[in-house]
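Human: We require from you a standard protein entry with sequence in single-letter code and fold as tokens, and nothing else.

Assistant:
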Amino acid sequence: MTVTTVEGEVVVLGPDAIGVSLTPASAEESAHRLLRCAEEARRTATGPRDELA
């Protein structure tokens, strides 16, 4: 996944032809939600899950 800024927006590209453009506020909220879910998944995971996708 690649994350960059374009004309005041946060742009997320890939993998698998994924493309998302977010306002800065939406990107910040999405980041918080991703972190919360990642923490929960880590607590409830069975087996190794530390690899990056």
About this structure: The first strand starts at residue 2 and ends at 6. The chain has a mean pLDDT of 91.
